Every structure is written in C-alpha cells, then in structure tokens.
Amino acid sequence: MKGFISGLPKVELHLHLEGTLEPELMFTLAERNNVILPYSSIESLKAAYQFHDLQAFLDIYYQGALVLQTEQDFYDLTYAYLKRCKEEHIIHTEVFFDPQIHTQTGTPFDTVTGGVTRALKDGEANLGITSGLIMCFLRDLSEDEAIETLKQAILYKDDIVAVGLDSSESGNPPEKFERVFAMARNTGFKTVAHAGEEGSADYIWGAINALKVDRIDHGVRCSDDPKLVDYLVEHQLPLTVCPLSNVQLNVFDDIAHHNIVDLLKQGVLVTINSDDPAYFGGYLNENYLAVAEAFDLTKQEVARFSENAIKASFLSDEKKQLLQQKLEHYLDIQFRPII
Ligand SMILES: Nc1ncnc2[nH]cnc12
Ligand SMILES: [Zn+2]
C-alpha cells in the first residue's frame, strides 16, 4: 500500500504554505533575518509541538511565521514545498497563504505575494507541478482589515485563484465576512472557508449560505447534522479533510475514529490533505497511508480520494480531464493482470 500511495498521482487542496516551515528552515531564516527564536535548538522547538487544540497550534504557527521576511524567504519556503510535492507525486496543488500574519508586522503584501508567486511559476516550469494560490483572511481580525487585504489581492488577480478564511474558528463565524466574500466573488475570485473543524455544523451552514463557498476546508463536524450531510452529497460540495491535523489538534482522539471514510461511503466529495505538514508530522502520502491503514482500505478505495481531489480542484474541465487520464494510466498499470 505504501508504494501504491507513493506513486499515485495526487492533488492537494488544503495546504498552508506557512505550515510547511520545517524547523531547519525556521532556524536558517531566523539567523538570516536576525530574529531571536524562543528555542535554543531544533529539538527544543520540536518538543513544543504538542497541541491540545487549534489555538495552541496557531500560537506557535504565527510565532514561527515571523522568521519569513524577505521575498527570497517566501520563495524558498514555497519552492521547498514544491520539491516535496515532486517527491510525493503531487501533480497539482492549491495552496493557502496568510498575508495578514506578515503585513501586521511590517512585511509588505508585495514581498509575500511576489516570493510565493515566483516560486509557483518556477515550480511549474522546472518541476512540472501546476498550482493555484488561495489568499486567506484571518478570521480573528476585523472585516475592515479583510477588505484592506482584498484590495491588495485584486492587484494580483491573475495570480490568486481564490480567497479563503482561516485561523481561530470559535467565536468568529463565517457571517462576519459575508460582505468581504461577496466583494471577492464579484471580482471573480473562487471562495473557500475553514468551517466545522472545531466549530459546529452551523459554521458549515454559514460558509454555504453567507459566504457561498465553492469548497469547505475541514467540514468534518457535518456528521452532527444529517441534513447537512444530505446537502453536501446532493450538491457535491467538496470537503478538504486533513486527517493527521485533526488527530494532532484533538478534533478526533484517534485516526481510527475519524469520519472521513464514513463520509466517503455516504457519497460526500471528501479529499485528503496535509494542512500544516511541518507541524503535524506528515505530508500528503503519510495522510493517505494513515487513513488507508486505519480503515484497511483497498487500493481502489484509496484512489477515489485522488479522483475526488481532481474533481474538487479549481482547474478547467480540460485540465481536470488530463489529470484524470494520468490517474487512470497509473491505475491501469497497477491493476493490469500479470500473464
Ligand atoms: N488547521 C487550521 N485551522 C485554522 N487555521 C489554520 N491556519 C493554519 N492551519 C490552520
Ligand atoms: Zn487549514
């Protein structure tokens, strides 16, 4: 199964670039930019990666992201992730970034977006990995700050495919950003939102009804509301689920109790993703493998997650077809009878 997953052509749809900041790169950038980290070694930093909930993780994630300061830093971060994609047979990825973490502490929006987009373009030219860029608003900041950020994103309309919503979910419902998302949609951006990670199923309804999103990020709490599950199945509204993240942040106490396979069997368009792999101990292949092993899935069942991710991507129908052909070619070889 490990070899099958490793070679399987895959698409990732829920990945925070700042969440790919490996401890080694964090220390390198801290030294490059004269940032003093509150950890004396890589080991002591890694030892702090014990998160009892989302907020405990976010506190460390935001602190780590402060070592990213120059255009080259954002380039290096993004390109390192794309090289990892190449190793993992990820053929297309739609990545999040959180510009407000950086603009709040004085790094210009252009520095952040410039470095990320330059790396994504090089990743396509040199590594053959296609991508989409999704700019997230921090939901614990104000509507006005989100509008200000959206105005800056409009200047990069050709480079940013969608806007999203992340950070502390509880107490920051989707409705707070209804007007910002309407502006984003009217400008032509696709929309996604984290909902139903720690927050209740009502947050997922909020993302659907107030934000009119094209995908829900996480969304696992939908199981608390059978009508919501019916809605997701009927409309084939995708969920970008992050199994290892959910276990690390205690959304589920054990991978064996995760609801992703239940949702798949009910007909929800679920996908597997890594969220913040440098912090949660696993990139995409490890997330696939954890689910496959916990639920004793067949190779055909595992391949459904890859097929779903192609369907749920923001690629054109023509490009989706090309990726689907690549997937089918791989499966043909895997399942060809040996004569
Ligand atoms: N899992 C997550 N939930 C909400 N915001 C995030 N930002 C980075 N990772 C996140
Ligand atoms: Zn996330």
Can you describe this structure?
- There is one protein chain.
- The chain has 339 residues and is of the alpha/beta class.
- The protein has one domain (2-331): TIM Barrel, CATH 3.20.20.
- It contains 17 helices and eight strands.
- An eight-stranded parallel beta sheet has the order 1-2-3-4-5-6-7-8.
- Strand 3, helix 8 (143-154) and strand 4 form a beta-alpha-beta unit.
- Helix 5 (71-88) packs parallel to helix 7, helix 8 (143-154) packs parallel to helix 9 and helix 16 runs antiparallel to helix 17.
- The mean pLDDT is 97.
- Zinc ion binds at residues 14, 16, 166, 194, 217, 275.
- Its cofactor is Zn(2+).
- It catalyses: adenine + H2O + H(+) = hypoxanthine + NH4(+).
- Residues 9-328 form the Adenosine deaminase domain.
Mean pLDDT: 97
- Low-pLDDT sequence parts: none
Helix content: 40-55%
Tell me the major beta sheet: 8 strands, parallel
Instruction: Note the quaternary state here.
Output: single chain
